[in-house]
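Can you give me the bound-state structure? Components:
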Amino acid sequence: MSSLEPTRKSLRIRRFPFNVDIRGQAEEAARITDYTAVTDERLVVALEERDARALEMLYDRYGEYVYSMCLRMVSDVQLAEDLTQEVFLRLWRRPDLYDAGRGRFVTWLLSVARNRGIDERRSRGRRFRHESPPSLASEEMLEAAGAPEEKDAAVLSEERIVIEKALSTLPPEQRLAIQLAYFGGYTQQEIAKGLHQPLGTVKTRIRLGLQKLRIVLIDQREGGSAAV
Amino acid sequence: MNCEEAREELEAYSLGALEANEARRVAAHIRGCDECAQIARAYEMAVEHIALAVPLFRPSRRLKERILGGIGAFRPPVYAGLMRRRIWAATAAAVLVGFGVAALTWAIILSSQVHNLRENNTNLASELSQIDEAQRQAMLRSVGDLSTTQYAQQRSIEDLNALLRISLDPELIPTALYGTQLASAARCNYVWSSQQSLGALTCKDIPSTASSLTYALWATKGDQTIALGDFVPRLDGTAQILVKFPSDVPGPVTNYWVTLEQLGSSRAKPSGQAVLQKAPEQQAAR
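Here's the bound-state model for the whole set.
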């Protein structure tokens, strides 16, 4: 046991508000002395070692994002919480599904949440979508469902500013089509039907909008020197 | 699907906006086309960023407990309940201890007060008994004084009645007594009522005596000397005494005189000198 390794007693005393018996569970995880300072990828490794504190830390970092994504997808607070719980429990059970070589953890986690939201919407049948076809009004209603909480200076604040700025550069109709597709989980045909627009028009808006968004993001990331 | 067809759909494919059959066709193409796969990957990275722009809403605080409660090793209700029970138990114990200490303190104070009250009660009872005794004594003295006064008054009334009866006797026998050398100015008159069998002696200018001495009236009846009674002169030198002869002594009375006697001494016979006595001719006349 190295000198840096905290004792089991000290682990139990540290700020951990739940009665999780971690004795002998994670000798490796016990080496994490400051959970707030370790990377997402390191926490995922700790999850494989059944470190409940790592899951708590990942929830503290991204729980609000996952919940907001789910809420955006299903427009139901209770259902959004249920989906958020499923996402994190799935992460707890199968942390190996995340491949660090394919991208950042947060984008993977949010894609899991989004896919779970899409599945939920589809499993609840088309009745939901028929009753609430995608429209500009539905987007406005979703925005008005509650003012977003003031996000504290969290890890993703700078990236949020970048992507929000990039989205704001898009024409409103392109931004709406992309938001309906991404956050609503609607297909192009469903969007066209909901907005009473030709399918070709919706396809064009999505194509042009995503191309421009990609360019803006690359420009902002590389200081405007990148090409298409 | 060729590359041209695929690239028209890559944006929507990356965004997940294609119908399922179209998405499968594009996926099949990019699996065999690295160039299209690379473009699709670039769009996917842009799409992933959109997720970060999701408007944030704060979940309920219970959600975190639910999630951490679902990982098996965690028992939030037990933990929370146990903590609540512990807090309640600690609070209840603290309250009980507080009440106990307060009750004990109160009991000590009450005990002390009861002790003091008992002590005061004992003192008061003692003082009250003393007061009662003093009052009782005072009452007895008052009753005694009253009895004495009543007795004296009654005696005075009886004496007056006796004197009245003697004075109404037409056959009174007077006898004058004169002072001897011890009290030359003193004079007494003695009257005897044979009808009432009572006599009365009235005197004046009788010298005062020491507190241990008293005047005694004597008579000679037959061959016996009889003590008829003691008297002490008043402040003005007068004195008065009623005399009742004993009926069992035979013979006539032949002499009266007064001596000075010790208070409380025997009256079987005179021991002091004569202070008053009959005139010689009066004695001879008898």
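A couple of observations. DSSP finds eleven helices and no strands in chain A. Residues 52-74 of chain A form the longest helix (23 residues).
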